Amino acid sequence: MRFRHPDGSVVHLSYCTNVHPAETLDGVRAQLRDHCEPVRRRLGRDRLGIGLWLARDAARALTNDPAELRALRAELDSRGLEVVTLNGFPYEGFGADKVKYRVYRPDWTEPDRLAHTTDLARLLAALLPDDVTDGTISTLPLAWRTPYATDPGAPRTVRTALTTLAQRLDALAELTGKSIRVGLEPEPGCTVETTADAIAPLTDVGHERIGICVDTCHLATSFEDPGTALDALTAAGIPVVKSQLSAALHAEHPHLPEVRTALAAFAEPRFLHQTRTRTTAGLRGTDDLDEAIAGGALPDSTPWRAHFHVPLHAPPAPPLTSTLPVLRTALTRLVGGAAPLTRHLEVETYTWQALPAELRPRTRTQLADGIAAELTLARDLLVDLGLKELP
Questions:
Q1: Fewer Cβ neighbours under 10 Å: the N or C end of the chain?
Q2: What pLDDT digit, counting tens, does each position of 185-208 carry?
Q3: CA 346 to CA 315: how far, in whole Å?
Q4: Does the predicted model carry a pTM greater than 0.70?
């Protein structure tokens, strides 16, 4: 979906296909047929943007066979789909029964991460619509904190990898005329947990093609104020290459038994749900929601937020809610000003099948309806900010 900003530029809105995990190229094609095109039809649009997730095996198949890449581009066109952004965070196995800490490997200290991201950049340059010259990729925020913290050579290794990536992106732009930018996506528990954590390493790299991806669920989980965060990035000259529009799980009164019971329904075995609370002594947290619920690990006199991507249009029932207000505030700062801070927006609710059983979609039709409802809410927010939806 495309929108005209009052300054004349085009802002793209898509949804991320990691909600339909597939490891192979055949699986990606099935996503387009079974999910993405039906969502487009529900929205009544001739064209729908998707933030494509290409697992390692699918990316390699496309990299190794130019004919397959051309065929994928043709299929996107025939189904009324367009790709201006990729989700390069998960490497493989995102559809596994237990993902948890596995999603952070390989990290940016490992050669496979650089090789995979380079492949994604080359693929995206070929998949961009003919009238679009700029593409973006979100990626791992360097590493999960613990192995990185124990390796004194990690910062230098990461800097070298990101500098090499920037050089490759420059060469790609010169070769293809397509500008691909990569954004570190801060996430609780990682080396770069907050937007503030991103400033030093990105300043160290100092390249316009390497910036940040602001995920509004992660932003809220860490209790970051959107205005303060975005102002600091602007002051430091760090580009916001894309933003993922998402909402976290919020519990205002975690000391109450009924709140603990409600939270327990969201503690599931597949994904990691880092949980945070803000106290007078600073931010406190656990790596997963069940650790917080068990008691003692977190103070419960202040609100809790958990890294659980709640459907934008369907906050959980009381006594819980979502951090949709944080998303609204962030979006106002991102695209509501005289010029947009980013032109690529992506709804990323990959946890539909991890919701409590009674809230999960039971059919493809129900899932498509839910995704369409999320995109409709995001569209309405953009229109309210003065953007005009384009055909």
A1: C
A2: 999 999 999 999 999 999 999 999
A3: 19
A4: yes
For the record, the structure tokens of 52 come out as: 């494509």
Task: Give the pLDDT score at 345.
Answer: 98
Give the Å distances, CA to CA, from 271 to 3, 237, 260.
Answer: 33, 33, 19
User: What is the gyration radius of the CA atoms in the chain, in angstroms?
Assistant: 20
Q: How far is CA 80 from CA 127, 128, 346, in A?
A: 13, 13, 17
- Encoding tokens for residue 167? 């050089």
Residue type, 116: H
- Give me the helices (H) in 101-225, please: 111-127, 145-149, 154-176, 195-205, 216-221
> Tell me, what amino acid is at 352?
W
Whole-angstrom distance, CA of residue 340 vs CA of residue 9: 8
Closest alpha carbon to 306 in 333, 324, 327, 285: 285
**Hey, is 293 helix, strand or coil?**
helix
**pLDDT (tens digit per residue) in 245-290:** 999 999 999 999 999 999 999 999 999 999 999 999 999 999 999 9
Contacts of 309 (CB under 8 A, 6+ apart): 217, 246, 247, 248, 348, 349, 350, 351
